[in-house]
Design a protein that fits this description.
By secondary structure, this protein is of the alpha/beta class. About 55% of the residues lie in helices and about 10% in strands. It is built from nine helices and five strands, in the order βαβααααββαααβα. It has a five-stranded parallel β-sheet with strand order 2-3-1-4-5, sandwiched between helices. The longest helix has 27 residues. It starts with a strand and ends with a helix. Pfam families: CoaE.
Amino acid sequence: MIIGLTGGIGSGKSTVARAFETFGAAWIDADDVAREVVAAGEPALIAIKNRFGDRIICQDDGTLNRAVLRDIVFKDPEQRQWLESVTHPKIRERILEHLKRLKSQGAPYVLLVSPLLFESGQSELVGRCIVVDVPQALQLSRTLMRDGVSESQVRAILAAQLTRDQRLAKADDVIDNSGDHASMRKQVARLDASYRQLLNC
């Protein structure tokens, strides 16, 4: 069974995924895959450089300057759409490769952790969807503390994602991650038991 795990920026998706891992689940992070497909030498990075020029390449090591690219695409929806048209098919292809590998390793179920699970169509790859939910004010404060980006940039990222209500409407399961770690872990334990029961049906 493949289960999607999503939530807005700063909702704590990776923390929740690590909690599931302690119960034996395997997981793959679509953000990590997104970094793989724009690594130095990858076709997607070459296409991005051809469109935006050397300014989006770190001169010391030839890797993508994600901060510069983020600034470009979140100011211009047309540029973001172009970037997604280049990267999303490659991300999906790589995700399928990783899922196949993880499923062969014997975990009871695999989580696909993705901030754009619904927006990118990756939800088609999963049987159930978990939404990690927190109030937007908490998303904002956590992201500002963690990423060192401007508030306007965080708000632009939030605007590019589904709204909280839209995301919740698509959820099969919800984890409220606005409380402490113990509260989150109890919710994970309950869902883990539920998924194992489904697998045994």
